[in-house]
Inverse folding.
C-alpha cells in the first residue's frame, strides 16, 4: 500500500468479516496497518483498529439507527480524503459487496476518478450459520443456497423479494438484516406456500463471544424471537440443514461463551491473552491502560547496551525489556557475537522465550516468576561476589532485584529500558462499551495495569470480578481496596487463562 506517485490517494473498501477477529483476512489487516485514514461502521469489530498506526485518523461512520452519517456524507468523505493523497480504508462489517452499500460507494469513487481496491470479507451469511453448527449445503438436504435481505418492508406492493419464487426454489435460504421484520417475512413465506414446519435458526452477534442461536419453524420463529427479545444484528437461516445443528453445534459449547472479559495490557501485548480467551468463547473488551515508551534517558540506556559485553550477567525482567535492549543492540552492532560471553537470566517463560527468539540461550530461569526467586537462584548456583550484573528493567519498577544482588556482593548496574505511561486514548470505544454493557471479569497482568485502570476513573461495573497474574499484582489490587477473585498459580498468560477457566467452572458449577 505504498503512496501512489500522483497526489491522488487510494480508497480501499475492506470487508472486516463477521465479528471474530480471527476471521479478518490478512489483506484487510495489511490495509488497516498502512492506512492514513480509517472510516469504520458499527458492525466492524473495533478491535481491528488496534492494528492502525498511532498517527492514523480514525472516523466512526455509524450506520446504526439514530447515529449514522448519511450515505452521501460517507462517500463524500472517502472522496475528499482520497483527493488529499491519503490511503483511505473504508472498513465495513462482513463483505463490502454483500448487502452493504459497498457497490454504491465504489461507483461514486470510480466516477470521481480516484483509484480504489475491493478487499472481500467473510460475510455473516456464511460465517453465522457455520458458527451455529449449520452447514449451508449438504448433499443429503439441498443443492443450492439463496441469500436475500429483509431490509425492506415485505408487505409493500413494490417488494423486490419474490416470495412465490423463494417458496418454489426451496434449498437453504439466508436472510440478512431483517430480524425486526421477521413476522412480516414469515407471513409472506407461509402465504406463498412455504411449509409451516420448515426449520429456521436465528444467529445473533454471530462469531463473537456474545453469539446466541434461537431455533424454531417458519410458523413460530417470529413469536419466539419477540418472546426472547431477540434483536438485530442477526442472520436467519431457513431450511432442513438447520436440523444438523443438534450434531454440529461446536462454537456455543465453549467454556467461556458469553463471558465478557476486560484485558488491560498494552495494545501490542493484549493479543496473546485476548486470543486465548477468545478461543474459549469469551467476548473480549481490549482496554489498554498502559503504553510502552522509551525511557526518559535513552542515551544512558544505549551506553549500557553498548557495553553489554563487559558484564558477567544480564538479567531481563520482562519481554518488553528484551525488545528494548535488542532494538538498540542491533542498531549498534550487526553481529550477535558482540554481546560477548555474558550469561543471561530471565524472569518468567515469556521473557525467556523472547530471549530465545533472538537465538540466545537463557542460563538462569527461576521456577517462580518474581524478582526474589532470581536472587535465590543466583545464590543457589554460587557466590555473586564481584560479579558484574546488568539488570534490564522498567523505570519506576520495584528495586528488589538490584538491592538484593548488591547486598550479596555483586556490582550491579540498572538499565532502564522503557517506561510504562498511562494509555488515555480509547480508539476502539472500549471504555464506552464497558460503561454501557459491563463485564464479568477484568484481568490485571501487572501493578501498573491496576493503577492506570483505576486512574481512568471509570465506573466499576456491577458484579465485575478480578483475575490477577500473580502475588505482586494481587498486592497492588488489595492495596486499592479491591478483592482478588482468582490468581494464577503459574504467573504467566497460560496460568492466568487456566485460573479464569477454573474460576468460571466453579462459579457455574
Amino acid at each position: 500500500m505504498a503512496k501512489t506517485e500522483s497526489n491522488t490517494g487510494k480508497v480501499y473498501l475492506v470487508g472486516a468479516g463477521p465479528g471474530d477477529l480471527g476471521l479478518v483476512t490478512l489483506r484487510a489487516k495489511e490495509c488497516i496497518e498502512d492506512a492514513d485514514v480509517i472510516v469504520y461502521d458499527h458492525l466492524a469489530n473495533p478491535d481491528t483498529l488496534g492494528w492502525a498506526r498511532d498517527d492514523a485518523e480514525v472516523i466512526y461512520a455509524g450506520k446504526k439507527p439514530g447515529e449514522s452519517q448519511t450515505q452521501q456524507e460517507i462517500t463524500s468523505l472517502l472522496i475528499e480524503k482520497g483527493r488529499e493523497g491519503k490511503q483511505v480504508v473504508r472498513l465495513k462489517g462482513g463483505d463490502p459487496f454483500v448487502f452493504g452499500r459497498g457497490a454504491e460507494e465504489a461507483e461514486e469513487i470510480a466516477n470521481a476518478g480516484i483509484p480504489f481496491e475491493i478487499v472481500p470479507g467473510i460475510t455473516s451469511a456464511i460465517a453465522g450459520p457455520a458458527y451455529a453448527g449449520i452447514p449451508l449445503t449438504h448433499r443429503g438436504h439441498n443443492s443450492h443456497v439463496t441469500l436475500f435481505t429483509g431490509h425492506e418492508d415485505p408487505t409493500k406492493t413494490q417488494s423486490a423479494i419474490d416470495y412465490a419464487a423463494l417458496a418454489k426454489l426451496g434449498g437453504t435460504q439466508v436472510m440478512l438484516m431483517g430480524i425486526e421484520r421477521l413476522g412480516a417475512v414469515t407471513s409472506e413465506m407461509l402465504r406463498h406456500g412455504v411449509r409451516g414446519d420448515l426449520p429456521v435458526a436465528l444467529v445473533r452477534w454471530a462469531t463473537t463471544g456474545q453469539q446466541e442461536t434461537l431455533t424454531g419453524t417458519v410458523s413460530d420463529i417470529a413469536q419466539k424471537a419477540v418472546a426472547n427479545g431477540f434483536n438485530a444484528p442477526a442472520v436467519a437461516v431457513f431450511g432442513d440443514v438447520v436440523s444438523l445443528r443438534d450434531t454440529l453445534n461446536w462454537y456455543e459449547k465453549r467454556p467461556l461463551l458469553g463471558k465478557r472479559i476486560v484485558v488491560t495490557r498494552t495494545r501490542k501485548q493484549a493479543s496473546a491473552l485476548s486470543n486465548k480467551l477468545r478461543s474459549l468463547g469469551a467476548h473480549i473488551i481490549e482496554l489498554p491502560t498502559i503504553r510502552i515508551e522509551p525511557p526518559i534517558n535513552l542515551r544512558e540506556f544505549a551506553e549500557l547496551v553498548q557495553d553489554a559485553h563487559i558484564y558477567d550477567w544480564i538479567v531481563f525482567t520482562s519481554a518488553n525489556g528484551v525488545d528494548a535492549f535488542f532494538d538498540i543492540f542491533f542498531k549498534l552492532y550487526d553481529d550477535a557475537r558482540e554481546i560477548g560471553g555474558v550469561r543471561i537470566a530471565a524472569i518468567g517463560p515469556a521473557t525467556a522465550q523472547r530471549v530465545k527468539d533472538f537465538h540466545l540461550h537463557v542460563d538462569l530461569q527461576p521456577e517462580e516468576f518474581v524478582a526474589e526467586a532470581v536472587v535465590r537462584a543466583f545464590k543457589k548456583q554460587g557466590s555473586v561476589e564481584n560479579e558484574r550484573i546488568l539488570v534490564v528493567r522498567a523505570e519506576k519498577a520495584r528495586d528488589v532485584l538490584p538491592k538484593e544482588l548488591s547486598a550479596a556482593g555483586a556490582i550491579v548496574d540498572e538499565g532502564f529500558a522503557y517506561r510504562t505511561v498511562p494509555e488515555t486514548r480509547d480508539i476502539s470505544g472500549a471504555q464506552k462499551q464497558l460503561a454501557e454493557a459491563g463485564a464479568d471479569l477484568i484481568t490485571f497482568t501487572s501493578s501498573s495495569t491496576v493503577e492506570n485502570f483505576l486512574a481512568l476513573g471509570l465506573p466499576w461495573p456491577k458484579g465485575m470480578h478480578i483475575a490477577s497474574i500473580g502475588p505482586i499484582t494481587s498486592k497492588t489490587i488489595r492495596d486499592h481496596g479491591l478483592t482478588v477473585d482468582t490468581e494464577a498459580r503459574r504467573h504467566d498468560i497460560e496460568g492466568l487463562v487456566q485460573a479464569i477457566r477454573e474460576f468460571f467452572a466453579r462459579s457455574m458449577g
About this structure: The domain at 10-121 is CATH 3.40.1010.10 (Cobalt-precorrin-4 Transmethylase; domain 1). The chain has 18 helices and 20 strands. Confidence is low (pLDDT under 50) at residues 2-6. The first strand starts at residue 10 and ends at 15.
